[in-house]
């Protein structure tokens, strides 16, 4: 029977009766036994008072016999048959009025007949019960692999969670067998089934006795263990399953896996929640090409709050809840405010001010980022034009995300807004992160070249953490490198960062690129950067991002302020 069909019958028809039959608790059994005995006695009394065995009332005796077989199987059926046979036994007259008694042979025949009936019903009930057991097993287990399936694991894990005392951690690990489907397509499904059986066998050997093991997808296993060993060790043991190749039909197969883990109660409190978080961790392990990862809420773009933010964003754009803040960039040699970076903010009616780190990463994975970027471009260019009119000519920098690089209309939108606001191309800078360019280097280089051809400035943002190769850097034709904050924030006290930053400055100079240091948080780092010839600086030590009116006020007072001591504006 096909699985869905079986499931349908099971759910609609059999499960309610089946559950009662299969899981018949002791109290129900006792009640059933009392009912059967009472029925036997009541039938005997009824038969006697209604005139004797000759009359049709005596057929009621089949009810306790059938019930006995149904509830207690073959043995129960035979016992109920004997009891009923005895109740209508030699002392029960054929006719109470005439007092005519039955022959011994007659009641022995009846007794045997009732026993056979009880046994038959019992046998049928036994088969039915086994069938229900099998259905129940199939519902919770993977038939081929003989381990729990997803639904069985969820059920068992929820039960385990209920029984887990406070202070005990459960570790839910999800193992994704990378390229397993390729193996299946190449070698066939019976080969991959045998491979899977070996993987499961090895996995069984490393899981402690009270653990749960399940095959939750064709190429995904899950393990639930108690906090009995160190969490790292648990992951290391799982990774160890794949250290050695598997031999299937004499063919050595290396299986690569990504493992993600989530903890109860820290990361989620339900089986479904824990599995979902472990899968998120597994995806981040796979993205970062590391063998395993523990769930980290900061990397979870699927968490409910983040997803609901994403859903609310189109409405927020329409209602004008997105605003643009500005952070000054200062020329370190002259102390002039050379420009500013436009940083989006969301003024959420319930959650207050939301910084981009909380929604931009999710938005970047959807087409919505195009709307956000165009929105920021329109606002930032208009503000820059207004500052210019007020006597503060400013270069403005807008962040461009990786998906924007695929937006065919982006360059025209930049041109259009620049023209509309009367800005020169040189007044506009686009910040593209190094990692965004490296995602599709050739395309990234093409977009940067086109922007440069149109006269715009392009800064490679967060430089130093995006694995770009020097060969590409030369081809990129960017105008500036923006050194990642990671190297700048602790510059004054970290000799390693000092070496890295000096090397980047040298590199940029030799490639003819301007340099911007972002994340300057203290005067000492600022002095070092100035001493080493870094062109521009940006950071809390100079100016914190501020809404437009505050930024304009900052610009208007710039002459009066002892520069770079202008902190919390
Ligand atoms: P980013 O482009 O590297 O921007 C610099 C971030 O560092 C800003 O965070 C800024 O407030 C923060 N920052 C500046 N100086 C300091 C400092 O001294 N110390 C520390 N700890 N942080 C400093 P913000 O505004 O939260 O933006 C975070 C990121 O969000 C940005 O990094 C950028 O990648 C992205 N982002 C911001 N606005 C937009 C936007 O309009 N479009 C796109 N695509 N991304 C944006
Ligand atoms: Mg930036
Ligand atoms: Mg940056």
TrEMBL record:
<dbReference type="InterPro" id="IPR035919">
    <property type="entry name" value="EAL_sf"/>
</dbReference>
<feature type="transmembrane region" description="Helical">
    <location>
        <begin position="60"/>
        <end position="87"/>
    </location>
</feature>
<feature type="domain" description="GGDEF">
    <location>
        <begin position="168"/>
        <end position="297"/>
    </location>
</feature>
<keyword id="KW-0812">Transmembrane</keyword>
<keyword id="KW-0472">Membrane</keyword>
<dbReference type="InterPro" id="IPR050706">
    <property type="entry name" value="Cyclic-di-GMP_PDE-like"/>
</dbReference>
<dbReference type="Pfam" id="PF00563">
    <property type="entry name" value="EAL"/>
</dbReference>
<dbReference type="Pfam" id="PF00990">
    <property type="entry name" value="GGDEF"/>
</dbReference>
<dbReference type="InterPro" id="IPR043128">
    <property type="entry name" value="Rev_trsase/Diguanyl_cyclase"/>
</dbReference>
<feature type="domain" description="EAL">
    <location>
        <begin position="306"/>
        <end position="559"/>
    </location>
</feature>
<feature type="transmembrane region" description="Helical">
    <location>
        <begin position="107"/>
        <end position="128"/>
    </location>
</feature>
<dbReference type="InterPro" id="IPR000160">
    <property type="entry name" value="GGDEF_dom"/>
</dbReference>
<dbReference type="InterPro" id="IPR001633">
    <property type="entry name" value="EAL_dom"/>
</dbReference>
<protein>
    <submittedName>
        <fullName>Bifunctional diguanylate cyclase/phosphodiesterase</fullName>
    </submittedName>
</protein>
<keyword id="KW-1133">Transmembrane helix</keyword>
<dbReference type="InterPro" id="IPR029787">
    <property type="entry name" value="Nucleotide_cyclase"/>
</dbReference>
<feature type="transmembrane region" description="Helical">
    <location>
        <begin position="20"/>
        <end position="48"/>
    </location>
</feature>
